[in-house]
Amino acid sequence: MSDPDDGARLAGALSDRLAALTFVDLTTERVTELLVDTIADWGAAQGWRVYRRAASVMPLPPPISGQRSVVDVACARPAASPVVIEVDHTDRRRTVEKLRAEAAAGRVPIWVRWGSRGFAAPPEPVRMVTLTVTARRAEAGVRLHSRQPARQLPPPEHHVEPITAGAPDPLFGPANAG
Questions:
Q1: How large is the average pLDDT for residues 39-65?
Q2: pLDDT digit string (tens) for 106-134?
Q3: Which are the contacts of 116, defined by CB distance < 8 A and separation ≥ 6?
Q4: How far, in Å, CA of 99 to CA of 110, rounded?
Q5: What angle do CA 92, 40, 70 make, to 5 degrees?
Q6: Three-state DSSP class for 32?
Q7: Quick one: average pLDDT of 68-77?
Q8: Residue 43 burial by CB count (10 A; 0-12/13-18/19+): exposed, middle or buried?
């Protein structure tokens, strides 16, 4: 079993990296590809070996139960437990089962969920990283997803000296009441 503090720390660092992402009008498949690419780049930047679509310890269900499932990204870390990351825009019970099996095998499981709806927390020791993304329907009925940066407004200017009232404005005076 992996160290829960390690999982929380890694999920926090990955969340910080994904929070910087912005995009406009991408398909569901393209958003998932972008997230997988960003996660792989994040892992490589840590100096880890990164594997996309790595074999999972979880077998596939019948009729193909002789084969193994895959995880979206796996990272081999020197002198630490491997990290496995799944990316989904839907709530899939099989993903939770897979990540719990990975945790039982000694890996740090992280589930990256993206979308516009609330995200239910997975059971321990699976860590969740969420990314809020908006969606709209395009003309052809295709769902397009966007993530815009938070708009940071500068603080208003404040006057240090006292403000004195000027002459009354005739537009707002008593003659124009009512």
A1: 91
A2: 999 999 999 987 888 999 999 999 999 99
A3: 132, 133, 134, 135
A4: 7
A5: 40
A6: helix
A7: 94
A8: buried
Region of 154 please: left (phi>0), alpha (psi -120 to 50) or beta: beta
Decide: helix, strand or coil at residue 163.
Answer: coil
Place of tokens 């958003």: 31
CA–CA dist 129, 80 (Å, integer) = 21
- Tell me, what's the pLDDT at 14? 96
Structural domains of the chain sorted by starting position, each given as residue range(s) with its CATH number in brackets: 4-15+25-115+126-148 (3.40.1350)
Q: Which residue has the higher pLDDT, 134 or 155?
A: 134
Work out the number of other CB atoms within 10 angstroms of the CB of residue 46. Answer: 13
Tokens 């709806």 sit at which residue?
A: 117
Beta carbons of 14 and 129 less than 8 angstroms apart: yes
Q: How many CB atoms lie within 10 A of CB 165?
A: 5
Tokens of 39: 């996660």
Cα–Cα distance, 154 to 169 (Å, whole number): 30
Query: Coil, helix or strand for 10?
Result: helix
Residues paired with 111 in a beta bridge: 86, 128
Mean pLDDT of the chain: 87
* 9-45 pLDDT, tens digit each: 999 999 999 999 999 999 999 999 999 999 999 999 9
Tokens 């490589």, residue located? 44
